[in-house]
């Protein structure tokens, strides 16, 4: 492949760097953030300018749920518009970043518990491209997606994230894309423009998540049942929460944690995001 990591970067997947790439959990929110210049997307743009330029990007998106774990392995993943009811301009967006089959095949060969299977059909869904196109608008860095095995426990996703942490030593920027608090059924649509509005349970859980992340008390974030009623409202389904667990699993002992985009939207969604570096 002409656009492989080997030809572009003269980089061996068998080599490890002493430097760790940062890793991110990003609250991606509405697909409209992909084309709007707002407080969230402007922060993504700033990250793209200040983080070390990665050799590849791996996105764990809340919007690719599978049985088993899969990674995209095509030369050029398509831009997936996996939503409806939005303006034509959003549906017309293309993010033509290359893929990186060499890295995908390496992951398939080196991870066996659990196995990671290569995929040639998915592409980049809006959990990936709406964020990455703001960070790297030139679309020259290879981008892969990792699916979420929806039949597995939080502990499974955390442990897989721990194993995938080796990619940080290979120049790969791993991004978890979802939302910590994500209850679409309870969105107060009439309060979307009201800064800071949030239901009591959403405010409580946002504070809980931030405190446990800051204190590295990850075990408290793996038992959803112990989060009580507020937790059940914040995480009615785990699809948007699970990407966070991959990033927490990658946290190193020397990592500094920064919180950004710490905002409630519509009362029941948080854009709260985490940078580990």
TrEMBL record:
Cofactor(s) the protein requires to work: Zn(2+)
Keyword field: Metal-binding, Oxidoreductase, Zinc
UniProt superkingdom: Bacteria
MF terms (GO), sorted A to Z: ferrous iron binding; oxidoreductase activity, acting on single donors with incorporation of molecular oxygen, incorporation of two atoms of oxygen; zinc ion binding
Residue span, Extradiol ring-cleavage dioxygenase class III enzyme subunit B domain: 49-254
PANTHER family per the UniProt record, alphabetical: 4,5-DOPA DIOXYGENASE EXTRADIOL-LIKE PROTEIN
Sequence similarity: Belongs to the DODA-type extradiol aromatic ring-opening dioxygenase family.
Protein name: Extradiol ring-cleavage dioxygenase class III enzyme subunit B domain-containing protein
Organism phylogeny: Bacteria, Pseudomonadati, Bacteroidota, Cytophagia, Cytophagales
């Amino acid at each position: 492949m002409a656009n492989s990591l080997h030809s572009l970067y003269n980089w061996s997947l068998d080599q490890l760097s002493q430097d760790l790439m940062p890793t991110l959990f990003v609250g991606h929110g509405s697909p409209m953030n992909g084309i709007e210049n707002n407080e969230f997307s402007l922060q993504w743009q700033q990250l793209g300018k200040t983080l070390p330029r990665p050799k590849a990007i791996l996105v764990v998106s809340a919007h690719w749920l599978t049985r088993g774990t899969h990674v995209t392995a095509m030369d050029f993943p398509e831009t997936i518009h996996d939503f409806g009811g939005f303006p034509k301009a959003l549906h017309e967006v293309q993010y033509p970043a290359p893929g990186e089959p060499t890295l995908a095949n390496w992951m398939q060969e080196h991870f066996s518990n659990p196995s990671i299977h290569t995929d040639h059909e998915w592409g980049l869904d809006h959990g990936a491209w709406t964020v990455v196109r703001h960070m790297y608008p030139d679309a020259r860095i290879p981008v892969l997606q990792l699916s979420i095995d929806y039949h597995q426990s939080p502990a499974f996703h955390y442990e897989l994230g721990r194993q995938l942490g080796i990619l940080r030593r290979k120049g790969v920027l791993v991004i978890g894309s979802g939302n910590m608090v994500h209850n679409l059924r309870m969105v107060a649509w009439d309060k979307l423009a009201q800064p800071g509005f949030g239901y009591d349970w959403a405010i409580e859980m946002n504070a809980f998540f931030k405190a446990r992340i800051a204190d590295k008390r990850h075990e408290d974030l793996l038992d959803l049942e112990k989060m009580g009623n507020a937790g059940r409202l914040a995480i009615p389904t785990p699809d948007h929460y699970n990407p966070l667990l991959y990033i927490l699993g990658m946290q190193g002992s020397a990592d500094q944690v920064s919180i950004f985009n710490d905002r409630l939207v519509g009362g029941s969604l948080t854009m709260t995001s985490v940078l580990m570096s």
